[in-house]
Task: structure prediction
Amino acid sequence: MPSKLSQEISPFYVMDVLERAKEIESSGESVIHFEVGEPDFPTPDVIANEAIKSIKEGDTKYTHSLGIPELRQAISESYNKNYGVNIDPARVVITMGSSPALYLSIISLIEPGEEVVITDPHYACYPQIIKIAGGVPVTFRIFEEEGFQIDIDRLKKVITPKTKAILINSPANPTGVVLKPEVMKEIAELGVMVISDEIYHGLVYGTEAGTIYEVTERAFAVNGFSKFYSMTGWRLGYLIAPEEFIRPIQKLQQNLFISPNPFVQRAGVQALKKAGVDALEMVKLFDERRKIMIEGIKELGFNIESEPKGAFYLFIDANKINPNSHELAFDILEKAKVAVTPGIDFGEGGEGYLRLSYTTSTSNIKEGIRRLGEYINNKGITL
Result:
């Protein structure tokens, strides 16, 4: 019989949407994909070529469990260049994606039953990862009318003696919000360990996203190559941790994952050293798409109080159409052939919302918005 944990874990609804969309496409119908947060651009050649070269040279064996020194050094230099912070490469741990980095951070920090505080709405997998690590996710609300920024007084109310960490995400999934520097500073001053998910760093528009290490050393930073370098399938991430956590994390890594992939790590070095121009060109195109999607969604009648300044998502209030976001998302998929993510995937605070990703062509964005407009008109709804 499956374990209680495995039976009770919540599904990742966006994958349910994607899988149904694929079924529809297999019957010959066209579906516009706004659901998945995955860059549609190919991985830059300089990265791919390095991996191919590394494989051909036989670099296919286990590496050091903390990752190859060259990549750890390159990450240290990247944080110094981008944020002006000095990170000892010995504090960098390479992982197979940012999700293992987040899991290792949490499981190295908490005892069973201790609490990790997260926003609501939040990235869909946060509560599940916390539960798998033996922790208890505790949420507090953020609101669109407040720019989806964290209210420190509201955060303070959920901190208890059992609170072991505050998990933040900036730029954020699903809201696209970039936390203000003063907010990050106030969070750090609460005296609780901070885990900062920085996977969308670099994907910002007309603003900057700061690292947690600009305001405190009492923190973990989680990051990776999937989003900024369009390397989702490569599974390459990392964490930066306080020195005293490195050996415990290393032992966990050895037992759970052994070591990261060698040729993918070599490619990561080239990403940091030579793919910056390619990545910034992708960011420029994402910004163009962002503007087109925002304009189109507003023309349909949606009120967007907080325009996203980071990541590649638009989080829209669809309560006037149907407050049940799961039901609405699948109805839109079946009738309009547009795949969107239900807001409930991101917590109770996301119910009534839909997340739209602009990781697709401008022509697809325009066609998807046209289809959404037809769907709304057929419902006879005025937004």
